[in-house]
Design goal:
Helix content is about 65%, strand content about 0%. It is built from 13 helices and 2 strands, in the order H-H-H-H-H-H-H-H-H-E-H-H-H-E-H. The protein has a two-stranded parallel sheet with strand order 1-2. Helix 2 packs across helix 9 (about 205-225) and helix 5 (about 120-150) crosses helix 9 (about 205-225). The longest helix is centred in the middle third of the chain and has 27 residues, at about 120-150. The chain is globular, with a radius of gyration of 20 Å. The termini are far apart.
């Protein structure tokens, strides 16, 4: 039996980033206990760092999902689970949702910015658009983790009745409701519940700091994740933008801004995305800041040649 060839992955860097992020967030979650919440200024700085490091954490989880964290599949999965517990959503939910995103990108259910001709009132579509834009990526996965932790006799009928109209939804629940995945998901959901219950308990009167941090986490992850696709061509799984950011933020986001490159080369680790960008002679479409604000224009008319389900 021959071993698979080793890929050129930044394993040492990934381990150090995972370690430093873990230390930071555990210290932050229990900041009241170790004396970090001494003044409004220190709290403000910590919230600022927590918000941006949340996206670094999300990007590193993304590397685990694609097997780009380590040449060891077991290590990528274990670290992914640990980081997801710190993030607040089970690894299997994040992994399955992201892989479904790659498969169904820009189809209905994965193009939230378009007015769909599915009978839903326009007002409701507008409301749901902004909810998804501002918090959806984070809080839908958190809620999904606890829904899927319920007995299968409850979660399967509920998902089939209310959450499985579209192909992307059917594929998601078909994959994630496998018994072996549900077992792992339940363990991770328990760890998440215990971690944040303890964090809020020991925060005492500073519980609002943790609550604010989670809202800001939901905001940055959801808004930035949707920015890479807002207004792009539909019904094309690789349709996405490369967005320009200052170098320091590109590093902080593990080069996630080279998003079209990632869609074409999902096995390319974060440290080689800029080189791949140069090799393919691709281009930066517009700035991340500009595209972020573009999303607040709201819903767009659905192109006439779209697939309607």
């Amino acid at each position: 039996m021959t071993n698979a060839p080793r890929r050129n992955l930044p394993e040492k860097k990934n381990r150090w980033i995972a370690f430093l992020l873990s230390v930071f967030f555990l210290s932050f979650y229990f900041g009241n206990t170790i004396g970090l919440f001494q003044s409004i200024w220190s709290i403000g700085i910590l919230l600022f760092l927590s918000t941006f490091f949340s996206y670094t954490l999300w990007a590193l989880i993304h590397e685990c999902v694609h097997g780009n964290f380590s040449n060891s599949r077991d290590e990528s999965r274990l670290v992914g689970r640990i980081l997801c517990i710190l993030f607040g959503t089970p690894y299997q939910v994040a992994k399955t949702a992201h892989l479904m995103h790659h498969k169904f990108n820009r189809e209905e259910g994965e193009r939230i910015e378009f007015l769909e001709q599915n009978g839903t009132p326009i007002l409701f579509q507008k409301i749901f658009y902004y909810l998804k834009l501002l918090q959806g990526t984070f809080f839908l996965e958190v809620a999904g983790g606890f829904l899927l932790s319920l007995p299968l006799s409850v979660s399967i009928p509920f998902a089939e009745k209310y959450l499985s109209r579209l192909p992307v939804q059917k594929a998601f629940f078909k994959q994630i409701q496998k018994p072996e995945i549900v077992r792992e998901l339940r363990i991770d959901s328990f760890c998440i519940f215990f971690l944040f219950l303890a964090a809020f308990f020991f925060s005492n009167s500073f519980f609002w700091v943790l609550g604010t941090a989670l809202i800001l986490r939901g905001f940055i992850v959801s808004v930035l994740d949707h920015s890479y696709h807002y207004g792009k061509e539909i019904d094309d799984s690789n349709s996405s933008f490369n967005l320009g950011v200052p170098r320091i933020f590109s590093i902080l986001f593990l080069n996630f801004n080279y998003h079209r490159i990632h869609h074409f080369f999902p096995g390319c680790p974060w440290n080689r995305l800029p080189d791949q960008f140069v090799k393919t002679e691709d281009q930066i479409d517009l700035s991340l800041v500009r595209q972020t604000f573009n999303q607040f224009r709201g819903l767009l008319p659905l192109p006439e040649n779209s697939k309607i389900l």
